[in-house]
Design brief:
Glycosyltransferase, 540 residues, binds 2-acetamido-2-deoxy-beta-D-glucopyranose, mainly alpha, single chain
Length: 540
Amino acid sequence: MRKLSAATILVSLCAHLTPVAATRIPAVAPHVNDPQRPLLETARTATFRNSSEALQDVLDALEAMQETYFDKFAGTWGDAIDWTAAVAGTHVSATLTGIVDGLDLSFGGVCSDLLQWENVVNQYYTQTAFFYFGENVFALRNQAFDDMLWVVLGWLESTKFADMYARRHENGQEFETSPWHGLQLSPMAAHRARVFYELASVGWDESLCNGGMTWNPSLNPYKNAITNELFAAASISMYLYFPGDNNSAPFISSTQEQYHKVHNPAHLENAVKSYKWLKESGMRNQAGLYQDGFHVTGWHRFPNGTINPGTGHCDDLDRMVYTYNQGVMLTASRGLWLATGARSYLDDGHELITNVIRATGWPNTDNIWRGLGRGGTLEEFCDHGLYCSQDGQTFKGIFFLHLTEFCRPLRASEKDMAFRLVVGGLDDQIYHYHLERCAAYSKWIYHNADAALATKNQAGLFGMWWNVPYQTAHIAEWESLAGNQSLPAGVFDHRNPALISSSLISSGDPNDRGRGRTVETQSGALAVLRAKWQWQAVYS
Ligand SMILES: *[C@@H]1O[C@H](CO)[C@@H](O)[C@H](O)[C@H]1NC(C)=O
Ligand SMILES: *[C@@H]1O[C@H](CO)[C@@H](O)[C@H](O)[C@H]1NC(C)=O
Ligand SMILES: *[C@@H]1O[C@H](CO)[C@@H](O)[C@H](O)[C@H]1NC(C)=O
Ligand SMILES: *[C@@H]1O[C@H](CO)[C@@H](O)[C@H](O)[C@H]1NC(C)=O
């Protein structure tokens, strides 16, 4: 086998990409923040120029997130908690995918530009590798089932990116040499995803409520939306994207062995059953939004260990509505369609998205709370009170991450995969119908991205309450709004338990109050800006 040096590969890669048309490639500025040198300069259409502005916003948000919050020595975001760090890592991997996916290199390239892109990608990819070692895995192994499943989704996102980038990097050429170096991380990422998937799978319980995942092994049974959505999303993502794992540590048994395979039917089965259970659980409200979850009336564990199962049914509903509970299900819907070809999964997703958009008031942009936002912009209920917890600050970004995945066009490798998994392959008409529905969300997405952008401060950091522009002139109006809203009787925001205190409603920009700007709020902006980049690059 002929071995090629890295330099030879790059030269041949560049040669392959020498301009076919007279158009010049996007040039990459060495410093993405240098206003004198826009990131992309192109002779292409206005649409492309516009989407390159969106890409610039994505890169700026990512750079500020990593420079401000990521601690390279520790390999993690120092102020994050374990699950929000797992989500931050997912955003970084998904953003890399979005950047590379959206770049149209096919119209010709200049080698130095490509080398600079390579450097941008490698910089952040290396940081995800640092995080592999910085992630608090020993603690996470004993946390709630949803915590474990965020870990699964994060490392699958990393292997998805590596697979895509390795293919893209080769650009159709078959190099008789070692593949893209980043693939070295994938077996480790796959191993971690597999181990945490197995740890979480024991949360499935049929002794109560005829099924469903339990949220937390050490608390009274609570079957909530997020854990079930995560189990459905993680199961179908394992089925589709898990590249296999030959590392049997930390244990191997006959039951666990089944989970090591690629396209494992056990993963598909878990996805179908948890998706179905959740859909039929009665967890949605009249607006069609997922509420938080079910307790079992009367369930009790006596000190001697005896359990009184109470009614044994999911009959005590926590009616709080959060943005992230409308998001993760979308990845499950998309994956189940890809794995089965069944249109109903896509319809479920579009219905949920439509309900969310309606619950922001859109296209109405007045100041009245509509259930999940106001002014056409997504909000957490806690946003207006400036008391969102670290959990609450993470939610909107999760929604947009999964919305973007839901509407991400299929790559050629995914179409091939579907052809192998679904008899006859995917129905093109259904796929095009799906893309058309996705395209129709663009205005709402731009509206939300622009609202998030308006919260950006001089350091490039974003706030949590997207409806309040940075240094707003209308501060008195916002302050009155902040104390002006209450939850329906009997609903308690247990994820953001702080009461509005006068110390939160002090001075300064509203988005600096409460917990202020954090890696979590930054990741939320990153996600919505990336959605804008995807919609502009793909759908306009
Ligand atoms: C593109 O950008 C121009 C100038 O910023 C703006 O007027 C136009 O509406 C944008 N087009 C789209 C499709 O966003
Ligand atoms: C696992 O080992 C088998 C047999 O050696 C090999 O074919 C396969 O590619 C390996 N899978 C992974 C993910 O390394
Ligand atoms: C455990 O305690 C409960 C409540 O005191 C009692 O009803 C039950 O019989 C006890 N079970 C055992 C096995 O002792
Ligand atoms: C606050 O609530 C009162 C009573 O519902 C309403 O009249 C007022 O307009 C609200 N203020 C704002 C800023 O929304």
